[in-house]
Every structure is written in C-alpha cells, then in structure tokens.
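Handout for the seminar on molecular recognition.
Each group receives one record of this type.
Step one: identify the two inputs.
Step two: read the structure output and locate the region that could contact adenosine monophosphate.
Step three: write two sentences on what you found, then compare them with the reference statements printed after the record.
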Amino acid sequence: MKDKKIYPYSTIGIFGGGQLGKMLAQEAKKMGYRVITLDPTPECPCAQVCDEQIVAEFSDKTQALNLAKKSDVLTYEFENIPADTIEYLEEQGFAVFPSSKVLRITQNRIKEKEFLKSIGILTADFQAVADTSGLEKTFLDVGLPAVLKTATGGYDGKGQVVLRDKKELEDIPADFFPRSLIWEEFVPFAKEISVICARGRDGQTETFPVSENIHRRNILYMSIVPARIPAETEKKATDIAKRVAEGLAVIGVIGVEMFLLEDGTLLVNEIAPRVHNSGHYTIEACYTSQFEQHLRAICGLPLGSTELLSPAVMVNILGDDLNSEQGLLSNRVNCPKTLRSVISGVLKITGANLHLYGKNEIRTGRKMGHITILADSVSEAIRRAETAAGFLGRKGKEDD
Ligand code: AMP
C-alpha cells in the first residue's frame, strides 16, 4: 500500500481537524480527492469543508482503524496525535505519512534535539531533566538564563517558562512535574526564521523560500517572505532543512524553525512534522502551496515548484484580537462584532487575503484566522500588514 500512487478520487484521511487540516482539505478538494477527518470536536474547521468527520479522540484505536479502512492514505495535521495510534495502523499495513518513527522523534523535544545532534545540526545547549531533584544540577550545568519546557505536549508557548534568576526555580508551574522536561539555554537570537521542506516518496526534497518570523508572547504574529537575511544564510537554512528531512527520511512536509544569531550561526529550535503556520503565505505567494505539496508528497505524485511569485507578509488573527468576545459563539450565523470591523478594514487593503477558520470558540492565544498580504516589495507588504494589524487593534509595529 505504501508504494501505491494515490490519485484524485481516492480518499485522504486526516487526523486532526483544526485550521491546518481545513487548509489541507481545501487543497485536496481542489485536486479532486475525498477527505475524511478524525477529530474530537464536532464541526471542527476541517469538518466544515471535508466529506466526512469521525468524531473521536486521537487515542481511540477502533475509530482510528475505522478512518484507515475508509481512506487510501493517512496523514495528520498536528504532532500531538499519540504515536501509538499511528504505529498501530502501520502494523495493520496502512500507509501513514509522516511515519510513527518521525512522529515519535518530533513530538518529544528531547528526542528531537538528540536527533538533530546525531546528524550534526546545531541547537541551543540543552539537558533533559527527569525530576525536581535534577533541576539544581541542570542549573549548574547549562546555566541561566534558560527556557524550561515540557518535553511533550507543548505548543504556542504553552508548557514553557523562561528562567532568568535562580529564585525563579521556585515559580515553575506545579503541572510541570512529574513530567519529563528539557532545560535549554536562552538563545539571544537576532531573528527567527523557518523553512518548509517537502520530501517525496522518491526521496526528492523541495524547500520553500525562507520565512522571517516575529513572535509575540511565544505565538507566531507575523511571517515575512522573503526573509530579510543574507543570501548565504538563506542557503544555509535551506540546506539544514533538507538535511533534517533526509535524516528523518520523512514523507510529506515539515517545518523547521531556526534561531539566527548575530554572527550568522543557525540553531534549529523545533521541527514540525506537518504543514506549518509560517508556510501559510505559500497559498497565495507560491506556484505550489505547502498544503498541495504535502498532498503531492504523501500521494507519491511529483512535487511542485516552490518558486515565490510575490513578496508576502502573513499576520495571524488571534482570539486576543477579539478580546471583548471571548467564549463560545452562541450562534455561528452571527459573525463576532469585532471581527466585522476587522473584515471591513482588511478587505480594503490591496493584496490582502483573509482566511477565517470558522472556530466556534474564541480564546486568548487561539488562532482564529490569518491575513496574507502580497505587494511588489517586502517593505510595502510590511507596511500594508501593519495597517491590517491596526484593524486587529494592535499597535501595528512589526517589532514591538
Ligand atoms: P517553541 O515552542 O520551542 O517553538 O518556542 C516558542 C517561542 O519561544 C520561540 O519561537 C522563541 O521565540 C521562544 N523560544 C523558545 N525556545 C527558546 C530559547 N531556547 N531561547 C530563546 N527563545 C526561545
């Protein structure tokens, strides 16, 4: 089954039905595939555009098998799917891309950094911390300032604390223990960048143009493409992403997040075994989007050109931007009031493409949508993105 090419009219099964699943499904529908998603939340974003939803927990192996039997190929849209579920399906002979092996490495920050080290790729200094008693020793070995992260389950800044002072060891959230933790040196990076890389079943790799990413409170705020970095750094970043994809022998798209230091050194921070928020710009700005590329890779079809058609800036719309309306939307027919004014403003900006994910609950830090703005130059795209950010109630400075 793993070698069979999966042509349109076949069925793609997606674990996870958030915005990444939705955009994957939209691309799959464009290409003529059927799509089924498995997600515990009824009417999740992906379910709004796909053919069928199986409402189930990701740990439910019976329902996972049900999805597998209905699908010709399986994939996932986020890395916190239990690797056991994916391995179970592989043992039954089903094709899941990326594999459970890739998932096991990338869903655990310790395994991920050890893997990177094993293939000679630089990361922040790190040490695994097994329990509270190990904290003092790690503090001495790696030092401060540091970022203490849960090894599994964290995303968008959840499950991590910055430690600047020894006294702050006492403020570590109680739910960090007895979990496995990783202590990382705090990297004083000059910029954060990422590279989306696809690897096909034949081993061919293709990278998308490097994205320069600006985070606020650990959540991606803005992606700028092309990244404002020297050509040699771009080449280095692209080579690193390819080496990671090859080292993992991944099939599908991965997102490789990196820290760029003042002296040009690149450290890999994280690998996402899936399509990535910093690659949303590819929908409008590249010949092939990251979503289509992922589908091409997992279906055994030729990879597409990743050439950039236009400079682009992506701005995330977070639940925070709709602050007055946190909570469950009682009626989906009613668009939140704050969103209406955002929509009216943003749609007047030349080159703006508005994506709203259709989530029924607004929460702080939750990704509700994004805007991708195209322009003839990066500086003009940033200027327009700042205008868009102004409609989101932000101060509108890319770096504040
Ligand atoms: P992560 O969940 O590892 O992607 O971290 C989210 C964000 O926190 C990153 O994009 C960085 O802005 C910041 N961050 C994570 N790890 C470090 C580190 N070791 N040093 C400095 N900043 C970090």
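Reference statements: The first strand starts at residue 11 and ends at 15. The chain has a mean pLDDT of 92.
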